[in-house]
Structure formats: C-alpha cells, structure tokens
Amino acid sequence: MLTPLLLNTKEGKKRFNELLDRKFTVSRKYEEPVMEILERVRKEGDRAIVDLTRRFDCPDFDTSNIRVTAQEMEDAYLKVGEEFIGSIDKAVEHIKEFHKAQVPKSWIMTREDGSILGQMVKPVDAAGLYVPGGRGGKTPLVSSVLMNGIPAVLAGVKRIILTTPPCGDKSVSPYLLVAAARIGIKEIYKVGSAWAIGAMAYGTKTIKPVDVIVGPGNIFVTAAKRIVSGTVGIDMVAGPSEVLVIADTAAPAEYVAADLLSQAEHDPMATVVLLSTSAELAETVSKALGRLLNGLERRETAQKALEDNGALFVVENLISAAELANTIAPEHLELLVEDPWGLLPMIRHAGAIFMGHYSPEPVGDYIAGPNHVLPTMGTARFASALGVETFLKRSSLISYSEGAFKRDADDIIRLAETEGLSAHALSVKVRGKNL
C-alpha cells in the first residue's frame, strides 16, 4: 500500500509539491461536445432532450415522459421502507436547523442628514437542482437532494425543480422522489447530463428556465455548468473529492484508514492525505488501508485514487501539520488528535473541519447538518460551502433627502469630473439648479 514519507526529505517534499499542483480542468475533448449539446437544447428544446435521452438513457423515451407524474410520486412511498423515511426526516431536521442560522436579513441605516441606506435581501425566483443517476438508479444520491434543496427552501425560492437521468425503464429511483417530496420539491424531470443543465439554463417547452443551478455531476455536467455560468448562477465548478487527516499518537489507525478510504471510493481522481506526527501510526495506517480496501465494493476506484493521489506524510509536530493543511486548503479536513479544539485556531483554510475521533467525514455527508457541497482543489482559500446565500441576492437601497443631496453634490461632481464622466456630473448639476 502507500509508503509513509518523511516530509522533510527530498522525496517527501517532491510528493507534497505534486499534491499542491493538483488541478482540475475540463479538456476541449469534453467541452466541445458539451457546447454542441447546449446549443441543440437552446435551439431545439424538448426535441433535443428526447433525442439525447433516447441515445444515452432510455431508447423509447418521449416528451410525455419528461416530467415525473403525481402518481409516480405517490407510488414512490410504497417502494421505500419506513426506516428510510425516518432517516431522511432526521437528516432534514438537522440540515434545516443548521441552515436556518445562515438566513440573512434585510437592513436599513439612517444618517442625520436625512439619507437612508440599506440592503434588501431577496431569493431568486427559481432554482434548479441536478442529481446524478447513481449507477442507473442503483445508488441514488439522496443526500444531494437534501443538501442542495433545503438551503433553497429556506432562502424562500418559490420554484425549485430537480432534474435527474431516468433509468432504462423510464423510472426514477423512488428514494430520490421521496427525499424530494420530504422537502417540498414536486417539479421533477427525467433529464440527465449536459442536456439537463441546458434545459434549466435556457428553458424548453416543458422545462421553464431557472436562475441558479446547483448539484454535482460528471465531467459533462461540470463542463455544462461552467459554460452556462453567467446566463445563470451556479454553486461552483467542483473537482474530485478530497480529505486530509491530521493525526497524532492518540488516533486509532483503523479510523484513519477508513476515513481516507471514504473519499478514495468516490473517484479515481480523489485526493487522500495523512499528516501524522507518528511514523509508527503512518506505518500502521498503510497496513490498515491494504486490509480494509479488500472489503470495498468500489475497491478498484479507491485503489486507483490511493495510488495516483494518495500520500502518508510524517511531520515534526501539529503546528507544522496545521500550516501544511492550510497550504493544501482541502475540501474535508479531519483533526484526529487528542485536542482538536486546541488545534482549531491554527486552521485557516478548509471546506469543512471534522473535530475528534467520532466526527468522521461521512457524518457531515449525511446527517450532521452543515452542507456537504464544498470547495475543492485548494479553492477553500477563498470559497465557502453551498448555503442559503447561494440562492439569495442583495440589492442596495439609496434614498437621499434634498439636504443630503445638497451636502454631497460638490463632492460627487468633483469625483465624476476627475474620472472624465461629464454626464455623471451633469446628472448632479441639473438638480443643483433647483436647490
């Protein structure tokens, strides 16, 4: 399995620098066909949707199949167990509780001269959620429905739609439908890949356009989101999943190994890194990785990620580990140390921080409450998790009294004329004539 490396050696530094240089780009071989697909959807609408769905998902798909019916929503409840509904409802409760604290308020301030200033916060009119097919419906990503949908609901978005690829029999996983129903999403379409993004961005006869598109997807979905960004808002252009674990001698090696594998199984391009103060622990983790890997359903994916983008580093101390973590700015950061709260003030850059031995990353993926849509590829240096604000816009409010206008007029004119914008100055001067 992975060989632990001393970070202060030539080999260790070389491997660390390779991780820092990680990049996620959409090559032209993907971008060009996606642009063609988006243009088809923009021009042909439903006809393009049906044709592409027939080619890639459902051979006998037609326009009448695009929208999930009320009957399909009802039938979905008969196909999932009460225990699943209970787990979904618990997750919904926790995610709502956390995200309610994010809801900003409009505000007003006044000045003595009579001017009134402020900020008005309003939701977008419509939001679109994309949910991948999950291996032909066999592994429905119900958590994506909740993590992307609940912030939109709490933001007050009036129209929230969901698109997801149909299975070969024109169905959608009942687990996805029930998850959507539990948070109030009823407008669901059986449309996948780049053409789903195009439909939400440009609109078709059946699918009306939205203002913001969120949700994970493959390289084609990612390329499509990047291309339509600007026509609509998007959450982020996310790269492969990442986890960085900082561990001291108090960390159980099996916990560390399992947590590394929890991200390695996502994608062969996933990044998994250990920074440990103990050479002995790093060696034990390496052996545990080999042992636990054998029992995974996605063994090949996880093994590829470990081989290509995995590393076990031995560092001098936790202070050094924290600074190295800040340099990487990982999507997920686990502090499997004796005193995680003592180490926390040293952490500046991470999408989400998991504190202690009983806070593994999957807790955050499903049920803790914070959002699992997080910045990757080092963008945690400046970007944040998806949240309620993703679906909100801010409008500035400016109301000047006559007195306030007169007080600032000369300064506005002076600044406008300095910039060579005479019409700006004129807009103020014509009002000054009447004062």
Word description of this protein:
- The chain has 435 residues and is α/β, with parallel strands linked by helices.
- It has 3 domains: 150 residues, Rossmann fold (3-Layer(aba) Sandwich); 207 residues, Nitrogenase molybdenum iron protein domain (Rossmann fold, 3-Layer(aba) Sandwich); 31 residues, no CATH class.
- Helices cover 46% and strands 15% of the residues.
- The strands form 3 sheets. A 6-stranded parallel sheet has the order 1-11-10-9-12-13, sandwiched between helices. The protein has a 5-stranded parallel sheet with strand order 6-5-4-7-8, sandwiched between helices. Strands 2-3-14 form a 3-stranded antiparallel sheet, with no helix packed on it.
- α5 crosses α8 and α17 packs antiparallel against α18.
Which key terms come to mind for this protein?
15% strand; Rossmann fold; alpha/beta; 18 helices; 435 residues; single chain
Mean pLDDT: 95
**First and last CA, distance:** 81 Å
Give the strand line-up of the largest sheet: 1-11-10-9-12-13
Strands, total number: 14
| β-sheet strand percentage | 15-25%
Largest sheet: 6 strands, parallel
Approximate shape = globular
The CATH class of the largest domain, by name, is Alpha Beta
Low-confidence spans = none
Helix-and-strand structural type: alpha/beta
Tell me the number of helical segments per DSSP (H or I, 4 or more residues long).
18
- C-alpha-based Rg, rounded: 26 Å
Q: What count of domains describes the coordinates? A: 3
The CATH architecture designation of the largest domain is 3-Layer(aba) Sandwich
Question: What's the CATH topology label of the largest domain?
Answer: Rossmann fold
CATH superfamily of the largest domain: Nitrogenase molybdenum iron protein domain
Helical content band:
40-55%
